[in-house]
Design goal:
By secondary structure, this protein is α+β, with helices and mostly antiparallel strands. The chain has a single domain (5-144), classed as Pnp Oxidase, Chain A. It is 36% helix and 37% strand. The chain is built from five helices and six strands; from the N terminus they run αβββαββααβα. It has helices spanning 5-13, 51-58, 92-107, 114-124, 139-148, and strands at residues 16-22, 28-38, 41-47, 61-67, 75-85, 126-137. The protein has a six-stranded antiparallel barrel with strand order 1-2-3-6-5-4, surrounded by five helices. The longest helix has 16 residues, at 92-107. It is globular, with a radius of gyration of 16 Å. The two termini are 22 Å apart.
Length: 149
C-alpha cells in the first residue's frame, strides 16, 4: 500500500504516536513513540533493550495510532507488520545510515557532529523501524477526502 501525500503530510505534521505490540501472553502493550513518514510507511525508532523490541521480534504485527495534537481534529491508525533494522540483522554501515535518517526525520534537523551521534546511538542500540501498513483507518481519512472534494 502506497500512502497518499496527504497521509504522509498528516504523519509529518503530527510526529507523536502510540504503538501497539503484543506481549507473550497475547495482551497488547502500548508505547508512546515519535513517528515520521518514511518509504511509504510510518518510521519509528526504539532501542533493542525495550520490551517492545522483544515483542516485535517474537510477533512483528503492530498498530500505530497518530492523532492531531488536540486529539479531536482527527486520527489515523496504521496496521501491519513492522520491519526492523538492528544490530542482529543489518550491515553496520546500512544501520548507521538508517539511524541518521531517523534522527534527521524526527528532529527535522541534522546533527552538528555525526561521529558523536553514531557513537551514542550505537551504544544505545537504536533500532530503525518502518510500518508499511496493510490497512489505514481513522477519522482523519474522511476529512482528507472532503478536503479533496
Amino acid at each position: 500500500m502506497q500512502l497518499e501525500p496527504q497521509i504522509e503530510q498528516f504523519i509529518h505534521d503530527n510526529p507523536q504516536g502510540v504503538m501497539t505490540t503484543f506481549r507473550r501472553n497475547g495482551m497488547p502493550q502500548l508505547s508512546i513513540v515519535t513517528v515520521y513518514p518514511r518509504d511509504g510507511g510510518v518510521g519509528i525508532s526504539i532501542t533493542e533493550t525495550r520490551i517492545k523490541f522483544k515483542n516485535l521480534l517474537r510477533d512483528p504485527r503492530s498498530s500505530v495510532l497518530i492523532s492531531h495534537e488536540d486529539w479531536w481534529s482527527g486520527f489515523l491508525v496504521f496496521e501491519g507488520t513492522m520491519e526492523m533494522q538492528h544490530t542482529g540483522n543489518t550491515d553496520p554501515e546500512e544501520l548507521r545510515m538508517a539511524r541518521r535518517n531517523i534522527f534527521s526525520a524526527t528532529t527535522r534537523r541534522r546533527s552538528s557532529d555525526w561521529d558523536d551521534y553514531d557513537r551514542k546511538v550505537d551504544a544505545d542500540k537504536r533500532v530503525a523501524m518502518i510500518l508499511r501498513p496493510d490497512h489505514v483507518y481513522g477519522s482523519a481519512l474522511a476529512r482528507m477526502k472532503a478536503a479533496l472534494g
